[in-house]
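User: Predict the structure for this protein chain, please.
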Amino acid sequence: MASTRFYSAKKSESWHGAGISTADAVSNIIYKTPTAQKTSSHIHVLNCFMQDEPGILTRATGIMAARGYNIDSVVVSRTEIPGLSRMTITVNGEQAVVQQARKQLEDLPQVWAVVDLSDSKVVEREILLIKLSTLGAEHLACAGNSCTPRQPLSPSAVHQRERELAEGLEAEDDVDLSTAAPHVQVIESSRRLGYIRNLSNMFGAKVVDVGADCCIVELCAKSERVDAFMKITEPFGILEAARSGRMAMSRSAKLSLFDDASQEAVAKNEPAPDLSHLPPS
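Assistant: Here is the predicted structure, written as structure tokens:
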């Protein structure tokens, strides 16, 4: 009874720091927790080991496309063995459908084996190269991307713009960078580049190239993290984006070099089982 009364007292306590009760705090946490989305299909990762021959990629993807399989990404690369290539296929579909696709791939004479890594412990990575505008999405919308040069302003328009800035006719946050003076664009570009650097460091990405009005960021992470990074950098203005596709490799099942030796030592030290109490066979 004492523990029950203590629990009831704890439950009715108020969180004095925020001025809300414990029940309200828990309800707020539950309300903000996203619910899991129930989908009938799942992501499956297939590692296909095949001979490095011309046309094998077309045949493998043709089998998947002819039967209507939804392929998310395909990554083909050479391995450490000469003449052997690894193709990582990410398929979105039912388990039975994916297994049928795996068997059809194994029937190809150039394919050595197809390994399904869907239910295995794997390391997944995807490389992203994304070009972001350092002058904002508004500058991108009105002036085009970095591949489309902007028309230079006339000297009179530049002087007029500088006079307006000097006289304070416009607020600093409302400056139209597409028609602003070059030194204003440089200052604003450097400021936004700092924001992009800080955001990239949080995601483990790095800025690999910087231009006058854009920068290129490289990120190597899981596909979900790549999606999140692209979503959160969208307000800066995405000029270009290239993704390598999902690559996967199974993790090592052996975590210690002493497990086998210790198990053998224990097995040697264990006494032989006593079989005298067993009934005769």
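The domain at 126-245 is CATH 3.30.70.1150 (Alpha-Beta Plaits).
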